[in-house]
Design a protein that fits this description.
Rna Polymerase Sigma Factor, Chain: A; 2 domains
Length: about 200
């Protein structure tokens, strides 16, 4: 549904150097990105495989239109490809990746005349997930997932963004603060209010 095309993948590198997939799978994101800079197309493939799902869901739940999300998703990865030579290990790879994603989403909203991701605001809870193969529980879980998707849409944009960066991107408070340009307490506040409202919607 959101795979890069063969034509786009061809842009990842001009020279493909040999690599061992198992070694790349064990490497950190940062090491893989540096390896990609040196011409290892396989390193990019591993990074893409690791992060395509969370990035796509982050984009989809921000713009909420599947066709638009697919386009933005492609553009985010193409932006990464175009700028991979400028990558430096100053922060986690995911911070760099989601900075690209966030900027593209903000640009999209601005183009639509909507400044959705620009400014609200003071312990962070977490939503637990059930894991089971029981058919009846699986059906209930699917309903819960659908309810959660609707609940996420009801959140103010900045609260939704903080929640998705934590739950989808797996970022910590300091990483989210750095990415979004606010202090740690503001992130905690956004997450707390987001979780509170999600719980109210999910359990009225």
């Amino acid at each position: 549904m959101y795979e890069l095309s063969g034509e786009n993948m061809a842009l990842t590198t001009k020279a493909v150097t040999p690599y061992t997939l198992s070694m790349d799978q064990e490497s950190t994101d940062e090491d893989l990105m540096l390896s990609y800079q040196r011409g290892n197309a396989g390193a990019f493939e591993v990074l893409y495989s690791r992060h395509k799902g969370p990035v796509y869901r982050y984009v989809l739940r921000q713009c909420r239109v599947e066709e638009t999300a697919s386009e933005l998703f492609q553009e985010i990865w193409m932006k990464l490809i175009q700028n991979h030579k400028h990558y430096e290990v100053k922060a986690k790879f995911t911070t760099w990746l989601y900075t690209i994603a966030r900027h593209r989403i903000i640009d999209y909203y601005r183009q639509q005349g909507n400044r959705a991701l620009e400014v609200d605001s003071g312990e962070v809870d977490s939503l637990s997930a059930a894991h089971t193969d029981q058919p009846d529980v699986r059906a209930g879980l699917q309903q819960t997932i659908s309810q959660l998707a609707v609940a996420l849409e009801s959140l103010p944009a900045l609260q939704r963004e903080a929640f998705l960066l934590k739950e989808e991107a797996g970022m910590g408070l300091d990483e989210i603060a750095k990415l979004t340009g606010v202090n740690r307490e503001a992130v905690k506040s956004r997450l707390r209010y987001a979780v509170k409202k999600l719980r109210q919607v999910m359990n009225p």
